[in-house]
Automatic annotation (TrEMBL), chain A:
This is adenine phosphoribosyltransferase. Its EC number is 2.4.2.7. It comes from Hibiscus sabdariffa. Its main location: cytoplasm. Pfam families: Pribosyltran (PF00156). Keywords: Cytoplasm, Glycosyltransferase, Purine salvage, Transferase. Pathway: Purine metabolism; AMP biosynthesis via salvage pathway; AMP from adenine: step 1/1.
UniProtKB/TrEMBL annotation, chain B:
It is found in: Cytoplasm. InterPro entries: Ade_phspho_trans, Adenine_PRTase, PRTase-like, PRTase_dom. It catalyses: AMP + diphosphate = 5-phospho-alpha-D-ribose 1-diphosphate + adenine. Belongs to the purine/pyrimidine phosphoribosyltransferase family. The keyword Transferase applies. This is adenine phosphoribosyltransferase. Its EC number is 2.4.2.7. Signal peptide: none annotated.
Length: 190, 182
């Protein structure tokens, strides 16, 4: 669900966030209009709005785990975790986490990839959210959800700054609610 | 300079949450794992607060964080002190036009990149990472910032491995750490 349709209609913060995102055409390959959030991170007010909106939403939901997907999920997740008093759990590409891990494979457009989480980071029964900068097909987020569920956590919601058109019709991912702040920007002048 | 003082309970609390994983990524290395620190909301908050206390009100407009663990500590600090956050990344991850700085690894080389235009000349910057070992990566990070005319005020890390003498590779730039691990 989009924030604007869910209580934040007309909230000027959403426009500021959207305006701060840069579109880079043909990255990483031809035809892809890459949604670059690094320009959002350069705009302190807009970056703060982004975190604040997620914090407002999650602070009274008894969330004890914020899981962030490497690497751009690391830029948003920890600030949210700190503000709501939850632990931050990094979900990483293979071989980065030093301790014992559990792994979940997922499909890419061509081939497969894998997401890992430390054993013992999350306990059964904990209420968790997953944070990433953007959801496209939902493959990575689905893998993240499966990791958390495998250790008995309850995934309350997935929160993303940007949601691509493929997910617009989907309110849920793996049966879990999806909360998105903004739609992708179009390239200016096109 | 280090915040480490035997009797400081905050520092002790932070240090006690860091897990040492032997022989990772290879035999002989005692890896300092900060993920266990992130699992303790109070200790994680204390970590960020110590940096914020030091840098708030010092006119710092840029916090640059080194991929990927610098992305965990840098943004909360940037948000609290009113600075922008600039990710310094491995090659080919940043989508826009970049400048690159190569640095030497134990075996071979690596490269750090920063977006052109992210930082302007005259800006006062911090470089943040979870740990300083030999100082090679931090050095490359400082080079990137200085090449675009920024002033690196200090490098800030949670952990220092003083035996690797990384402090000496920082071209005289100050280094602030919370915890030393020998």
């Amino acid at each position: 669900m989009f924030a604007a349709e869910n209580g934040l209609k007309g909230d000027p913060r959403l426009q500021a966030i959207s305006n701060a995102i840069r579109v880079v055409p043909h990255f990483p390959k031809q035809g892809i209009m890459f949604q670059d959030i690094t320009t959002l991170l350069l705009d302190h007010k807009a970056f703060k709005h982004t975190v604040d909106i997620f914090v407002e939403r999650y602070k009274d939901m008894d969330i004890s785990v914020v899981a962030g997907v490497e690497a751009r999920g690391f830029m948003f997740g920890p600030s949210i975790a700190l503000a709501i008093g939850a632990k931050f759990v990094p979900l990483r590409k293979p071989k980065k986490l030093p301790g014992e891990v559990i792994a979940e494979a997922y499909e890419l457009e061509y081939g497969r990839d894998c997401l890992e989480m430390h054993v013992g980071a999350v306990e059964a029964g904990e209420r968790a959210i997953v944070i990433d900068d953007l959801v496209a097909t939902g493959g990575t987020l689905s893998a993240a959800i499966r990791l958390l569920e495998r250790v008995g956590a309850q995934v309350v919601e997935c929160g993303c700054v940007i949601g691509l058109r493929e997910v617009k019709g989907q309110l849920r991912l793996n049966g879990k609610p999806l909360y998105i702040l903004v739609e992708p920007r179009e390239i200016d002048g096109c | 300079m280090s915040a480490y003082r035997d009797k400081d309970p905050l520092i002790h609390g932070i240090q006690s949450k860091i897990r040492v994983v032997p022989n990772f990524p290879k035999p002989g290395i005692m890896f300092q794992d900060i993920t266990t620190l992130l699992l303790d909301p109070k200790a994680f908050k204390d970590t960020v607060d110590l940096f914020v206390e030091r840098y708030k009100g010092k006119n710092i407009s840029v916090v640059a964080g080194i991929e990927a663990r610098g992305f965990i500590f840098g943004p909360p600090i940037a948000l609290e002190i009113g600075a922008k956050f600039v990710p310094l990344r491995k090659p080919k991850k940043l989508p826009g036009k970049v400048i690159s700085e190569e640095y030497v690894l134990e075996y071979g080389k690596d490269c750090l990149e920063m977006h052109v235009g992210a930082v302007e000349p005259g800006e006062r910057a911090l470089v943040v990472d979870d740990l300083i070992a030999t100082g090679g990566t931090l050095c490359a990070a400082m080079q990137l910032l200085e090449r675009v005319g920024a002033e690196v005020v200090e490098c800030a890390c949670v952990i220092e491995l003083p035996d690797l003498k990384g402090r000496e590779r920082l071209n005289g730039k100050p280094l602030y750490v919370l915890v030393e691990s020998r």
